[in-house]
Amino acid sequence: MTLQAVLGRAASRLESTAAGIALSLAACAVLFAGDAHATEAQAAAPPPIARAAGDGPPLWVIRDADSTIYLYGTVHMLKPGTAWGSDKVDAAFDSASDLWLEIADPNDQSELGPLIRQYGVQPGQPLSSWLTPEEKTALDAAVRATGMEPAQIDPFRPWFAALMIATGPLTVAGFDPALGVELNLRARAVEAGKPIHGLETVGQQMRGLALMSDDNQKVYLRHYLKTWNAVAGDLDRLVAGWIAGDETALAEFALENGRAISEETHQTFLARRNADWAGQIETLLKGSGVSFIAVGAGHLAGDDSVQEMLAARGVTVTRE
Questions:
Q1: Of the candidates 135, 147, 139, which has an alpha carbon nearest to the alpha carbon of residue 35?
Q2: Mean pLDDT, residues 248-253 taken together
Q3: Model-level pTM?
């Protein structure tokens, strides 16, 4: 397989799941998994979602004299039949005049191919040159679990290779990006004629990862070489905690897949982006009306969450 073909395959994996890179480090792999592509026609007919037991996933709200903003944490990839629906979230969504996602349209991947070529490949420095012999052995096993051969992934930079090797176990375990929460909400917004906005672009997300230091890219890759075969179980636990509304479980997942790996990982995937989004939300509050914002659940849990960033700006966020 030529490098061009490998890059094409990598791009196809990224196509429908770029709706939020930083749920956490492991959920970053969720974003980049799978080949499903949600067309606009599919978006107009969202599948029914089974109702969660109890209150379901947590929902937060910000209110002032003339504005209401709902914050809802999502999971970007789910198994068929996952029961996450709730009357509370439906009522909040239906009351909103517009929807905000991490990326407005995950179907628009016009930036992706050039970005992969610019940031995902490093001619003259193969991936194997970054690793010890023991790590190369681990890489071979991880790569083969994705259905690729080690030689095919060798041109990739460490950050991009890490995303690729973490996706195989998730799809094998039955997680499907086409069932992700954002795609369902986006389809409902399209059907209802609600405007859809993005907090950032695919290019911003990709550059944030690609511009990590070389040292942290190696830390990032080595983390996945040790944990790629555990990511499916980790995501199962995240989904269970999310559905149960367990903020502690969500915060632990965010910690384990961010700051516990490295401070730079935490800043790249969560803190800097949360600060930017908090600023956008503060600006949105200066207007009026009702908005519904849906971002990866890890952004709304633990240290440096969007809620903490808003509190530092004097904005009160309460759980519904």
A1: 147
A2: 95
A3: 0.86
